[in-house]
Amino acid sequence: MAEEISFKRNIGLFMAVMIGIGATMGPGIFALPGELAHMVGPLGILVYLVMGVITVFTALNYSELGAAIPLAGGGYSFTSRTMSRPVAFFSGWFFWIGNTLACAMYALIFALTIRTYFIADANLALIAFITTVVFTAVNYLGMREALIVITVMNLVELAVLVGVAILGMTDIEPMNLEPLAPMGWGPFIPAMALIYISYVGFELISNASEEIIEPHKNIPRSIMITLGVSTAIYVLVVGVMMGVVSHEELA
Fold first, then answer.
1. For the segment 75-99, what is each residue's pLDDT rounded down to a tens digit?
2. Please, what are the domains in the chain?
3. pTM of the model
4. Which contiguous run of DSSP H or E holds residue 32?
């Protein structure tokens, strides 16, 4: 019989929120606004806001299930406890594949950023590979070490995004936000699909359920705080971007 593994509950509300924000606010905010501006223009601000509101329904599901089934594994644990084994098996594999592809995308976006702003002839594959190895090693060291790195990176990212947005507010030109929908409302739904990945990540909080203190309280709170903070930052940053630079230039 396999030995049962137990976890120590040492993750409070703040650290749970850091897990959520770290997984949710990835490089998408740096890579997607340009494509969004190309698709819908200033309407992109509303796209981020509406997507945040719609995602609340998914967040509520994860909050309820995470509080009721506080087991490591998140979505896999939910399906294994409430559905058949085949359903749990496939959900676990889909979750693993989806996150693997997301990690690859994030690493590639990071590599593209390095090549665009720092090293013009940088090897994208090599940088993406090194990035993946480094963060895998950090996670392998343990939850405590990973949380320290996540927290520092989150606070730096939030400070930079909010700081740039606040400074940019003084340069907003109202004419850049007119008309609101230069391409019409037709691309609105496809634009929501484009930025959906920017709201994926808060569900990883439930993966650490067995290590979260008072999970019945802190899981729902941390998920909703993560979604609220992410949505507010997205709307603020994208709003300033499109107000300072015309959507044609941003695209």
1. 889 999 999 999 999 999 998 898 8
2. 13-245 (1.20.1740.10)
3. 0.90
4. helix 28-40
